[in-house]
Amino acid sequence: MEGKEEDVRVGANKFPERQPIGTSAQSDKDYKEPPPAPLFEPGELASWSFWRAGIAEFIATFLFLYITVLTVMGVKRSPNMCASVGIQGIAWAFGGMIFALVYCTAGISGGHINPAVTFGLFLARKLSLTRAVYYIVMQCLGAICGAGVVKGFQPKQYQALGGGANTVAHGYTKGSGLGAEIIGTFVLVYTVFSATDAKRNARDSHVPILAPLPIGFAVFLVHLATIPITGTGINPARSLGAAIIFNKDNAWDDHWVFWVGPFIGAALAALYHVIVIRAIPFKSRS
Question: InterPro entries, alphabetically (predicted)?
Answer without folding.
Answer: Aquaporin-like, Aquaporin_transptr, MIP, MIP_CS
